Amino acid sequence: MEMRELRPGDAARCAELEKILFPDENPWSENVFMVEFAHPHTFYLGAFEQDGDAEGQLLGYAGMAMLGPRDDPEFEIHTIGVDPGHQRRGIARLLMDNLMLVADNFDAQVFLEVRTDNEPAIAMYERYGFTNQGIRRNYYQPSGADAYTMSRPSRSER
Ligand SMILES: CC(C)(COP(=O)(O)OP(=O)(O)OC[C@H]1O[C@@H](n2cnc3c(N)ncnc32)[C@H](O)[C@@H]1OP(=O)(O)O)[C@@H](O)C(=O)NCCC(=O)NCCS
């Protein structure tokens, strides 16, 4: 597996995976990914299959945004997804390890929203020290599904 920061040329594949992974939730388009990658305070990472010496297909992606002042920021996970044919192989863990390293380097708290019925993702976030902070009703559209807000304390608060 190869990891690197995502760039505009990866947006179409991200959008393709989103359509498969979030069919009920207004999956992000290629254009939305382009805007996200270009934002100065976001960090998007991809996990790529290796194809000999060449870079293979994008199998997983994750991104988060830095909010607030640079000397005391918070982070918010915007999205994470892994190709259904390659799940449960530790790809999300690789992505999360890197995102959490960035947050810990800033000694920052991390927030996210997750569907209340998304057991795999909730289990993963709990393994990273996220805890449930409350429920946001009808957070996801058009499904109307509820979300939990979860947060992970900064390194110094853990
Ligand atoms: C959640 C998701 C990103 C996990 O990706 P993955 O590459 O399969 O995850 P990993 O193999 O790295 O597993 C990481 C941890 O997640 C949890 N996990 C992942 N899949 C799980 C499942 N089906 N059931 C229970 N726990 C699961 C486990 O705690 C796992 O750690 P372990 O393997 O040591 O037990 C993937 O299921 C996915 O893309 N889901 C659809 C998109 C989504 O819901 N994203 C989150 C939006 S908030």
Automatic annotation (TrEMBL):
Q: Name one GO molecular function term.
A: N-acetyltransferase activity
Claim: Transferase is one of the keywords in the record: yes
Q: Which UniProt keywords apply?
A: Acyltransferase, Cytoplasm, Transferase
Q: Does the keyword Transferase apply?
A: yes
Top-level taxon of origin = Bacteria
Question: What are the N-acetyltransferase domain coordinates in residue numbering?
Answer: 1-155
**Known Pfam families for this protein?**
Acetyltransf_1
What NCBIfam families does the annotation carry? rimI
Which family is annotated? Belongs to the acetyltransferase family. RimI subfamily.
Q: Which PANTHER family match?
A: ACETYLTRANSFERASE, ACETYLTRANSFERASE YPEA
Name under which the protein is recorded: Ribosomal-protein-alanine N-acetyltransferase
Q: Which organism is this entry from?
A: Corynebacterium occultum
